[in-house]
Amino acid sequence: KNQVEQSPQSLIILEGKNCTLQCNYTVSPFSNLRWYKQDTGRGPVSLTIMTFSENTKSNGRYTATLDADTKQSSLHITASQLSDSASYICVVEGKSTFGDGTTLTVKP
Amino acid sequence: DGGITQSPKYLFRKEGQNVTLSCEQNLNHDAMYWYRQDPGQGLRLIYYSQIVNDFQKGDIAEGYSVSREKKESFPLTVTSAQKNPTAFYLCASSISAQGSQPQHFGDGTRLSIL
User: Fold this and answer.
1) Cα–Cα distance between B74 and B97 in angstroms, integer?
2) Residue A6 or residue A29, greater confidence
3) How far does the CA of residue A42 sit from the closest CA of chain B (Å)?
4) pLDDT greater than 70 at residue B17
């Protein structure tokens, strides 16, 4: 069964701290892996996309990594801000398999 | 500004009633999608359309119907056959259904049972 599993399910950090969100997948065939940010009550917004051959991609304070051999991706957030509070969703494209998301809360 | 507009933002359904959720995009995208999101769960694909007058069932199409008469519009009807319709519904579009095209999402419609 094609699956995308994200961890942790939820995370609380203090403003200014860094954090890393995990995404493990078993989806095959693999197309691309995308991370979305979803604010409460809003639609998801694309943060990064990674192809099979890419290891790291950054978008401001967001850095995504991909290890295609172990089928793992991570999203690292640097110097967190209150506005980073949201759900972060990992998606393996091709079959558009969505993870359940990690809910991040940044506290002052 | 280009984007996807979903309406209404909140919708209530009575038992035995069909309701229609609106989705309009002015991005000139060929592909459009409907997803259902339940608390703590990933998005699940209901229907998608790659071109006008054509649409395909997704993973959870039972109890739902769609039409694609215009490129910019992809309404979703939640029929009385859908016994558990309470959820957050998201419409999305992409330039095409092929390749690494990002999906642009609307801000959703929250449907509840009265």
Assistant:
1) 15
2) A6
3) 4
4) yes
Residue of B nearest to A5 (CA): B42
CB B76 within 8 A of CB B27: no
- Closest by CA to B42, choosing from A68, A9, A70, is A9
* Contacts A4 to B, Cβ<8 Å: 42
- Residues on chain B touching A31 (C-beta within 8 angstroms): 100
Cβ atoms < 10 Å from Cβ of A92: 25
Q: Which of A85, A84, A74 is nearest to A23 (CA)?
A: A74
Those residues whose C-beta lies under 8 Å from the C-beta of residue B65, and which sit 6 or more positions away, are B76, B77, B79
The per-residue pLDDT of chain A, averaged, comes to 93
What pLDDT digit, counting tens, does each position of B19-41 carry? 999 999 999 999 999 999 998 88
Condensed to tens digits (0 to 9), the pLDDT of residues B47-68 reads 999 999 999 999 999 999 999 9
Q: Could A43 and B92 be called an inter-chain contact, meaning their C-beta atoms sit closer than 8 Å? A: yes
Tokens of B102: 């990002």
